[in-house]
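Supplementary Text 2. Reproducibility record for the structural model of the 403-residue chain.

All settings were left at their defaults, and a single model was retained for analysis rather than an ensemble. We include the record here because the model underlies the residue-level annotations in Supplementary Table 4.
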Amino acid sequence: MRWGSTVDVSLANILYRVQRTAPDGSAPPLTSLFSLFLSLSMLPLPQHSLHYIYTALSRNVKMPGIHEFTAMGMLDNTLIDYFDSDRQVKFPKQKWMKAELKEDYWKKGTESRQSKQQWFKVNIEILMKRLNQSHADTHVLQWMHGCEADSQPDGSFVFHKGIDMYSYDGQNFLFFDDENQVWVASVTAAKATKMKWDNVSDLRKYTMGYLENECMEWMNTFLRFQRENGTTPVPDVFLFAGKSKVEENIILTCMATGFSSLHTVLQMKRNGHILSKEDGVESSGVRPNGDDTYQIRDHVEIFKSDESTYTCEVIDVPSKLHLHKVWGKSPPAVLSAFFFFNFRWRSGCSVNAPLIDENVSACRQIESVGQLVSDSLKQDAPLRVLFLYKRVLMGEILAKNTV
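Retained model, structure tokens:
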């Protein structure tokens, strides 16, 4: 499967909206800068992915945790490295990254991120002039690029698809169609960029080579480092009963929290049979905690008199994780279970968004970014910022590769 012309529709259909009250008391819908990335995690995923995400603002807004430029590396949707315009250093976000990659890697990575920051600064200015926009407003340019792979029975991975996309001020701007090896303009303002980049054969070759080869090589390397360092966290698993509105029933809940892989599967079983929607199971879907891990909760309503054996199982195939919890038929523990779940759930603020700055909570950052863009757009439209995918090119290609 390749990333083709249907990208605009598929991305638009999975945007999450975050509500924030405007100064006039209204609550205009806003989509957080980073909601799209994790909402993608709610879709069926290949076995593994490596993505790099870049976000640049047209000016320094001087708000806590909101940087003029931010870059993040994500392995299987888990943050592995980070850079922002204030610290000016690329650094690891996982212990195994720090242990396995030497100083030279981080030095070159820092230089690359600094080069990208300048590239963004130049291109935001070009786009603002092209669209006759004012410097008084804040404009957002984003890019995301990477690769996704399927696991094979022998443990190897094969290329599934590459992604190289851009957005500007909340609108799809440009993406690379790797099947036809052309750039596709999503809006009229991107047509000039498409024509220019299509005529740079080295750019097309480099983009294809990176997506299908270099990105895959780094993904394999990172996964090996992760595996050899045994860093897969073991989640906590809970199976408990809660009260139902129907006197004769109880609600049985299976919950796993603290896992890092979005490929983790939660199963509820009755006498060894996997329960599904047809059996009345409802799921929260995978949601973020506030510590770079995730949680999921499934529940089903059953009779109090049910004598079946109910189990909760957590499975992650790549790491060979398999946890098993049996319900001991204890009475409903409404208060303790509700308190625990609410605490963990609120730590992620029920917002599908990774941290922009690891020192500032996701909720606070989303509020800040939401207000920033809301002010810029004068509360007259929803923000729909999509991630951009772009591999910063070497030397002269980078210099030529303006929009």
